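Request:
You are asked to prepare a plain-text protein record giving the amino acid sequence and the backbone structure tokens, at your earliest convenience.
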Amino acid sequence: MKKWVTEILAIDPVSGQLKTYGGPHIDASTWEEATRFCQTNGLGYCRVVGQLIAEVDEKTGVKIDYDNLN
């Protein structure tokens, strides 16, 4: 299953300015499925912006390659 990155536009409580924040990662097969998941599960304020390809585990330092997972 692929992981998708989302973003959220929200007002910064300190500055009062509109800012972009990272949202939750969504597990879905396609971009469209990730978008549909957000809309039907109370995350309609999130916008899918791309696929998460890899990240590094903070504790172990091991790279997790999501692009090659089954």
